[in-house]
Structure to design on (274 residues):
């Protein structure tokens, strides 16, 4: 039974945790393939009186769509099991740009989530827009890129849902929101304020709306600069799994250090049930 992590640290402290904040892509699944041990781990968290929340930077999919997608994969989850970078962006827009028309480069799902949240949103060039938002757009076209460049030529606040450069895929990786923003920066010279992970609000909001304390909370993910960084920034425990982006050599070279490093979420299941 594995009780030490890949760096030799004692992992028994994980048995004290009750609020488990998971990344999805590269942590729980890859594309539509659920990683071994993930379903058993989620069942165990419920059995010990804990809760799991998926904190994801993937703004291409709404919470409603996520619930349905995970259901088809055998993962039990309701809307209260999610906090996404899209939701964080909605909260930021309502607090900092109330009543303003939002120009959004994103999927139809993201635009609909903004509308359902009461935001006025458009994906067309519009002089009435007061703020620009770029998300992870899996429906990206050159026409969208051109419209966004035109909007960025205006002197408007510029936000992005998340800084991730790549999203895991079955064959490797595809460009994520951060990569789209880098492309736009090369053309326009404009760079956004990034919301979502590693902004500590992603963890703080979930903890505040739970019955658990930060000392009982752990963030589990596969990316150092988003998943692990958000846990570090929020002051909670972190586990980096090696089923997605990060490798041991990356962890050794990075200034962002997880508390624990494990091969996958399966080992967390084994630790909790030991």
């Amino acid at each position: 039974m594995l009780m030490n992590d890949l760096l030799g640290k004692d992992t028994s402290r994980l048995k004290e945790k009750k609020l488990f904040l998971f990344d999805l892509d590269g942590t729980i699944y890859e594309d539509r393939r659920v990683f071994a041990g993930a379903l058993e781990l989620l069942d165990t968290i419920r059995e010990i009186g804990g809760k799991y929340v998926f904190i994801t930077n993937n703004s291409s999919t709404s919470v409603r769509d996520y619930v349905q997608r995970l259901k088809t994969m055998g993962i039990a989850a309701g809307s209260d099991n999610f906090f996404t970078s899209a939701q964080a962006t909605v909260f930021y827009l309502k607090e900092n740009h109330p009543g303003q028309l939002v120009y959004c480069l994103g999927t139809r799902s993201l635009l609909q989530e903004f509308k359902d949240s009461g935001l006025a949103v458009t994906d067309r060039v519009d002089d009435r827009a007061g703020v620009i938002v770029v998300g992870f757009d899996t429906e990206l076209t050159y026409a969208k890129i051109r419209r966004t460049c035109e909007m960025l030529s205006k002197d408007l606040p510029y936000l992005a849902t998340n800084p991730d450069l790549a999203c895991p895929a079955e064959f490797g990786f595809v460009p994520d929101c951060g990569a789209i923003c880098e492309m736009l920066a090369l053309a326009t010279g404009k760079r956004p304020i990034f919301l979502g992970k590693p902004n500590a609000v992603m963890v703080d909001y979930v903890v505040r709306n739970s019955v658990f304390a930060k000392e009982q909370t752990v963030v589990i993910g596969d990316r150092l600069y988003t998943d692990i960084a958000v846990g570090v920034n929020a002051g909670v425990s972190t586990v980096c799994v090696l089923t997605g982006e990060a490798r041991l050599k990356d962890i050794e070279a990075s200034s962002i250090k997880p508390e624990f490093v494990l091969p996958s979420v399966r080992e967390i299941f084994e630790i909790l049930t030991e």
Q: What stands out?
A: The chain has ten helices and 15 strands.
